[in-house]
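Consider the following assembly input.
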Amino acid sequence: MYLTSVEREMLDGKYGEGVALAMRVQVALGEAFDAERMVEIGRAHVALSNQEADLWFVEKLLQAGARCRVSPTVNPGFHLEYFLDKTDLTGQDMEMISRTRKAYRQIGATLSFSCTPYLMENIPRQGEIVAFSESSATPYVNAVWGARSNRESAQSALCAAVTGRVPLYGLLLPENRLGNILVRVEAEMGDDFDFRLLGYCAPKIGHGVPVFTGISGATPEALMNLGAELNTAGAYGMYHVVGITPEAPALEAALGGRAPLREVTISRRDLDEVRDSLSCPPGKIDFALFGCPHLTLHQVRHIARLLEGEQLKSPLWVMTSSTTRELARRTGLLSIIEKAGGYIVEDTCIDQPCWRFLEGKVGVTDSLKGAYYARRRGMSFVLRSITDCVRAAIKGEVE
Amino acid sequence: MKESREFSCHPICRGRAGGPVLISGADICFYLCEPETGKVIEKGHPLEGESVGGKILVFPGGKGSSVVQADGLYQLAMKGNAPKALVIQHPDTVLVTSAIIMDIPLVDRVDPGFYQNVKNNDHVLVDAQEGRLIINRD
């Protein structure tokens, strides 16, 4: 693999052992995928997880003197101050979150603690080369913004932020971005929840770059949902929606003029089957939880409207970014939600120990991804659209 | 009678390691291995109940989110139950990064003859410096 003199010096340790370690990881990735050379990145997003390996690796880079050349936005952990009096956090939980904050601040990250940076804090332009990890983030920057990112791991994205470069391979090359699976969506896509169900049809769609036809008027939230679920039920860095993806003005362009390797049809029955196979049966619920991925202000407003003048029988939590929460506060949405008995929590992810107080309980959510990961934490969920979830939380049960 | 057969491969993470082979026909997520024993705990996985610890692991590739693979391998390594080397067919960014940061030799593009010859518990030397795999049988 060809390296410029600066890249060679990074690898040889001229910029310190931390940069050399980051470069070693990237050169190995480049060799694994036959990259000819490195390219500079404009942006990065690190799927910080607040888990052991995550903290171990960022501290290792830091102690070896690494600092980010490109400041990456980072994923949420949990908002320690909010949860202090709500759950039985262990000393280790608290130490992990404090050390995570400190390490990422010191290495030069932007402490956004949001999993949807592509909608607010970190938006690439079309054609820009970036290094984004996180399930919904990689496909969004590729398929919606037309930027170029591989499906980075948290660690490879951090190495890219440190060196300011990635090896040139995979989805950074135009020929690998072309669609090869034609997915005819025959189901009428009613609301954003249907896009979650569509994403969860990944096992039927199979390995490759899907091209969705039959979809019109998808909202940003719908596309966020689609990517999140595609990367829960499968692994996709790129997809095309004809008429939305910049590289897919028409079906032929999305497929690069070639015949697809496979054709799949998705009907309403497929979507209903996905929902029914993953959802708990309707009935009494203990809580409602939204924000996997983090809700947008538009979704927060929708929830607030449904809650205006209402009183919740089941407590309701909305996870979002600190920016969105602040906008909701200024706009008056936060007080509507709080008056009804709900909460907006910033900087927090569902897959965190702070939700221990919901262990063994049944909730309602629109997030298939959230329900999948929360199973490891002893929570189970009825799955419905946001509107139906909020109505259920007001009544305390799903009908 | 001692028998030794050599096959070519493409080194991804450099290093050398030898040990008994464990073969999996299915992709592996190391988050679903128990760190204390190295045992695969994923329901229905062909290796369910077998330990990956100290093995030369031969499998198609990795699976799972951009976060959990590294954490799984890390926890296995901390308990001394990480595999000694990984022999795969389909590299992905997440698995490759995890192996590199944990310093576990990883190779792909193996001579098809290796797959025809190798059996569970064969002693295999993975030479990810020179790009070769050596099966040693007594």
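The domain at 3-137 of chain B is CATH 3.50.30.10 (Glucose Oxidase; domain 1). Ask yourself how this observation constrains the way the partners meet.
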